Task: structure prediction
Amino acid sequence: MKGLGRSFESLIPTELIDEEFDPTATEDKKESKLKELKIDEIVRDEEQPRREFDKDALEALAASIKEHGVLQPIVVTREEGKYKIVAGERRWRASKIAGLDKIPAIIRTLDSQNRLELSIIENAQREDLNAIELATAYAKLSAQFNLSPEEIAAKVGKSEQTIHNTLRLLNLPDDVKKIMVKEKLTEGVMRPLVSRDEATIKKVLPKIIKEGWTARKVERYFAETKKKSSSTAIKRAEYIKVENALSAKYNNPVKITGRSLTFKCKNESELKKIIEKLSN
Result:
C-alpha cells in the first residue's frame, strides 16, 4: 500500500516483544514452549509464498546475529519429525549463514497456535487496553503469525492505517512508553513524538503531562517550532551577508548574534581604528 512510509516490518522493533506491555503474555506461556533447536531440524513452510530474500539484508542480519545472537525466537510447529517455520524464516536463514548450530524457537501445536491467535485478537479488540499494549498485540500478530497489516486490520475491525499508526508507538524509547502508560497519555498525543529524537521528546513530554496538552496542541507546538526554526535560518542567511559586508568594510571579523553586533579585534590598536572609523 502506497503512502504509508516505511515498510510494515520496519515499524516493529527487532528485539523481543516486551512482556510488560504484552496483554497475552500468560496465554503465550501456556500455549508455547521456548527452547533451542538444531538448525538442521528446522524446515521452511513450502506453502509460504515468500521465496526470495535480499542477499545483502541476510548478510547484514547474519553479521548482527554473530555479534548479538538471535534476539527474537522463530516460531515453529512440529510436523513429521521436523519443525516447520511459522514465523522467522529470515532469522533462520541468516543464522545458517552466521554458522549457528542452534536457534531459539517457540514451539507450538497447530491448535495452540490458533488459540493464541484468537486470544491476541480478542485482547486487541478490548477497549480498556492502552495504546502500547494494543501496539504490542499487533506486533505479536505480525511477528508470530505472519499476518499482514491488512489481515490484522480485518481481524480486529480497524483500518490498515490505524494499525500502522499504533505500531509506530513501539519506536518510542522504553522509558517514554512506560510514562505514556503510567500517565494514561493517548495515542493521538504521543504520535507526533514518534519521529522526534529522544532529547526533544524528553523536553516536551513534561509539558504535555503538566499542562494536559491535547493532540492538537502537540501538533501545533511542533509546527510553530518548525516555523521559528525556518524563520531563524532565513534571518541568519541575511545576517551572513551583512557580516561579510561589514567585515570587508572595516577589515575586521564581524559577528551578529541576536540583537548584538560584535567586532573581533586582535588588540587595542585594532579596536581604536574601528572606533575611529565608526565615529567618522
In short: Residues 253 and 264 are 5 Å apart (CA to CA). The first helix runs from residue 25 to 31. The mean pLDDT is 81.
